[in-house]
Structure formats: C-alpha cells, structure tokens
Amino acid sequence: QVQLVESGGGLVHSGGSLRLSCAASGFTFSSFTMSWYRQAPGKERELVAVITAAGSTTNYADSVKGRFTISRDNAKNTVYLQMNSLKPEDTAVYFCNARFWVQYWGQGTQVTVSS
Question: How many whole angstroms separate alpha carbon 8 and alpha carbon 33?
C-alpha cells in the first residue's frame, strides 16, 4: 500500500523555521521525483520545490528561493523541506508529491506563520 506521510508542520512566528518530512512507503522511492506543494485558503495548489530521483537537481518557486531547501534520503525513503525566514504568506497546507509513471500525494501538513 502506497503511503506518503507528512510531518513537521505547526505554528511559528514570522522569521522562524520549520522542517517538514515526508516518509514514503509502498513504492520504489529512489525512482521517483519528489516535490512539495502548498495550498493556501482560497488559492490553487502551487509547486514549492522539486528534487530529482537521485537528488542531483532541485528547483524552487521564486517565492521561496533562498529560504527553503528540499533534500532527500533515499536510504530512509524520506524527503525533507527545510523552511527558513518564514513569512505569513507561507501559511498553507503543505503536500508531498511523488511522480514517475504514476503520481502519489500525501494528505498534507498545516504550516501557519504568525506576523
């Protein structure tokens, strides 16, 4: 059974940091491109960061460049999102996504940044 389980969300003050984790199971994690998306209330889901299967290439939304870092540990079947210098506009539900010949989604973790 495929599972993507996000953790690490919470409430943080502006300027603070959080580290999200996404633990994967039920598929060959090391073959999949992994991404983090987010969805704020009343807005569409948007891509935040992507990392290729081997971890050699990453890409970021312009809004998070220089503040967020995506990484993965293929031995632990886990992808991470280190979020620094958080802003109120980063408030959203953050979703983990796995993509190869099929796509999987996690259920999301809430991140709330207070001003």
Answer: 21
Distance between CA atoms of residues 14 and 114, nearest Å: 6
Structure confidence at residue 107 (pLDDT)? 97
Phi, psi of 89 (to 5 degrees): -75, -5
pLDDT at 47: 98
d(CA 4, CA 16): 26
What pLDDT score does 32 carry?
98
Number of H helices, E strands in the chain: 0, 11
The closest of 76, 77, 108 to 93, measured between CA atoms, is 108
51 near 70, Cβ under 8 Å? yes
pLDDT of 38-84, one tens digit each? 999 999 999 999 999 999 999 999 999 999 999 999 999 999 999 99
* Closest by CA position to 113, among listed 81, 84, 91, 83: 91
Chain centroid to CA 9? 10
